[in-house]
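Record 1 of the preview.
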Amino acid sequence: MTTSRIRRTAVAVAAAAVLPFSLAACSDSGKDEASGAGAPASSSAAAENSSAPADSDMTPDGPFGPACAGVPKEGAGSFDGMAKDPVATAASNNPALSTLVTAVKKAGLVDTLNNAQNITVFAPTNDAFAKIPKADLDKVLADKDMLTKVLTYHVVGQKLTPKQLENGSFETLQKGMLTTKGSGEEYTVNDTSKIVCGNVPTANATVYIVDTVLMPK
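->
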């Protein structure tokens, strides 16, 4: 009996010694599970943030496009300067639009464009005019009626936002239709002419500078 009691006493002591470690292990396991539960929550928040629209997918609210880098930072030809002048005057202060300005003067459209209200002008660059064979360009410049038709085909009688250009069809002052499509900072007009500097404000118009002259049908 004495031996049996000794054994029972030893087992009880051993159990009493093991119990605190078991409880501590359970407590540590609970902490690990709690901290583990926090990690997915953090990951979930990160996933939600990553699903937010990127800035590149948003419609620009100011001038955009690669050719905008060539616009002067100061003076009448800068974005701030152009915003103060009516569109024909503003274009005359931009060296990249000198051929267009010459054409507008030959057609007698300076006052027409400067006095119009809330219009959009798709303005071809000098390089855009240079794509036209010289003989053909000279012929157009010498024919006032033809030149007027070509130039007024580049003008829409309302101010167009980039959002409206995403999939649009608009009547021009020439009475023909032009179409636009695109998104972000990349848009084309009539599937052939790319907007290289867009959403440029002038006192009476919004200007989209294009790399190809638009020809009415």
